[in-house]
Amino acid sequence: MGGHGHARRTDLGFPWPDPPLRVVLVQPEIAPNTGAIARLCAATGTPLHLVEPLGFRLTDRALKRAGLDYWDAVDLHRHPSWDAWLAEAPSRFHLLSTAGPRAHFEAQYRPGDALVFGCETSGLPDAILARWPDRVLQIPMRTDRVRSLNLATAAGIVMYEALRQCAR
Ligand SMILES: C[S@@+](CC[C@H](N)C(=O)[O-])C[C@H]1O[C@@H](n2cnc3c(N)ncnc32)[C@H](O)[C@@H]1O
Q1: Is there an atom of ligand 1 within 6 Å of 139 CB?
Q2: What is the distance in A from the centroid of ligand 1 to the CA of 11?
Q3: Is the pLDDT of residue 5 over 80?
Q4: pTM score, two decimals?
Q5: Angle, to 10 degrees, between the axis of helix 31-44 and the axis of helix 151-166?
Q6: What are phi and psi of 51, to 5 degrees?
Q7: CA max distance for the chain
Q8: Which class in CATH covers the domain with range 25-166?
Q9: Which sequence spans correspond to the domains of the chain?
Q10: pLDDT digit string (tens) for 38-67?
Q11: CB of 122 within 8 A of CB of 73?
Q12: Where does 52-139 have alpha helices with state H?
């Protein structure tokens, strides 16, 4: 058996999607959530798109603390509005909402797809959900117990399901 040395980290030879997935946060309000998602994006080579207005400044200490040293590794894009993002959005995107009629693992994810999340208090606007009803996905939850998952938790769950599918 080995001694007490540090285990060596490897990247497992994982086949990261090319083009990468994208994460889109529509009007996020809470800095630590965006920080945690930025770290997730850095760890997976996933561009992060922020649709303004944001509920914090990108210089916010809480944002930096949550993302730790990883901001330099994030491919960050800012958009002044939903319409501005839509104008350059990929044709394939998935909308994550507690109101989704289908489970997130029933969708088919492909390299280049965008995963779109709503803000912490009100989620994605009804007008967006109503315009693309076939793209709305829900992560299964005990709705008798909670109203929603934390935004960063939801992003992590969907990200790794999408990566798993893209790797097949
Ligand atoms: C805190 S939740 C928003 C809560 C809001 N009251 C609602 O019901 O949409 C923030 C975002 O996380 C994502 N989210 C949280 N729980 C989810 C779930 N069970 N299924 C899908 N998305 C979820 C959605 O993108 C949501 O807009």
Answers
A1: yes
A2: 30
A3: no
A4: 0.94
A5: 20
A6: -95, 120
A7: 59
A8: alpha beta
A9: 25-166
A10: 999 999 999 999 999 999 888 877 777 766
A11: no
A12: 61-67, 82-87, 126-131
